[in-house]
Amino acid sequence: MTEPKLDALAAENAMLKESLAAITDIGIALSAERDLTSLLSTILTKARYLSRADAGSLYLVEGDQREKLRFVLAQNDSLEVPFVEMVLDISSKTIVGHAVSTQQTVNLADAYQIPAEEAFSFSSKFDESVGYRCKSMLAIPMIDHRGRVAGCLQLINRKPSRDMKLEGPQHIEQTVLPFPVSTVRLMESLASQSAVALDKAKLIEDLENTFEGMVRASVVAIEARDPTTSGHSERVATLSVELAKAVSDVGHGKFKEVEFSAAQLKELRYASLLHDFGKVGVREHVLVKAKKLYPWELENVRLRFALAAREREAKSLYELVDNLARLSKGGFDPQPFIRAAGEAIEGQTERLQELLDLVLRDNEPRLLPDGHADQLRQVAEQTYTDVDGEIQPLLRESELSNLQIPRGSLNPQERIEIESHVAHTYRFLSRIPWTEELRDLPKIAGGHHEKLDGSGYPHGLTDGEIAPQSKIMTVADIFDALTAWDRPYKKAVPLEKALAILDAEVNANHIEPQLVELFKERRIFEKVLRGPPTSKLPRGV
Questions:
Q1: Which residue among 73, 153, 179, 380 is buried most deeply as judged by most CB within 10 Å?
Q2: Which residue range is the domain that position 265 belongs to?
Q3: What mean pLDDT comes out for the span 394-399?
């Protein structure tokens, strides 16, 4: 064998080794890539590199009947062309459509000179509009392991060298090479690998979309039980993720070594969306209790007061009739007795109304004023006669106890039940077989009511035991609970006061100081504040 032939054979072997090594590396890269968009870019970039194609594009099959092609990606080394994603019908009259419908590779030395016997054709409108020339062309159906076409890989204009830039149609005409059989086989192998990788990535994407849907459905179910908190979970998730991003940017202080990855941010987002999931384990009437007495309890109290008023009125009228009957024979003037009875009825009615007004005022979930507990006890000592003739107090002991709640609307037992939602959240979420990336989600969601000094719940964790993500969520949860403006039982706290309350929580050693500073400094709150109340907070805060 002559020396030139040996050199050519050596060069061919070297190229073959390079191609095999490249296809192996590409296979590894494709199997490792989980993001569909990145995977598509990798497929086209690597295919163009191996084939020395100047340009290329990718199409994916979609539609209920798999009758559509989505044009998802285009690349061109020699020309910058704006990309517009579009959906096309699969037609065997086009080059890509023919490759997909027949599951056969189309290899053209010149797209402008397609043999007459072929069923497909090429339109030069794009070339004319951008000043390009598609010459050699390769359209390879991407067939997966099930024999289904996942899409089509289209390569255009094979160059003599990878780094060459094609300078216009004439240069293309003179320079571009056809795709050789060896390259076609290599690209078919790559297309097959790519189809399997796409199938895997699409499966992962579908699973993630399903999971996302399940999470959102869970949030809807939670908020359906307490409609007044609608949007709370989403806002807490937004605030938490944005604050976590700010933490990752900090190069000093307690969190200088903390940098959350994309996977950790996703985990935090899901934990935030599900942080109140345990509310499904709390009785609904307790969950939505807006005032100290439940509506039906207050209605019973009103009925008792009304019955007491009628009873006192009847008693005064009976006394009047009795007096008039006794005095009718003596010629006395009855008017003084009538006036006295009327005044007695009016006085008793006014007194009962005053007592009822006290009950109504103290039924609000406000701070109970000094002395009101004793006044309520005096109300409870008032009596009426029920329909069975039994003497009953105007307020039952349980009603009196609830009206004497020092602050808020919940009695101690109800507060314990409400606080149990965090334990429910942790227990429910711990039963889900989370992926490796989401393994800490139950702990993060279950720690959003813990406090640095150990006074939080449900586990009484202290500073070093609370996950940074839980500390972040705590700040977000407190802020949104304070500023939510769509809750009928309380007014939203103005922004300035809400931030002051966060500072007070810091001073009480309940929440992380640096997180609150970041929250204010980066104005994280602006991500969710909309609608009343508007903020007049100066930019310097």
A1: 153
A2: 226-283+414-527
A3: 94
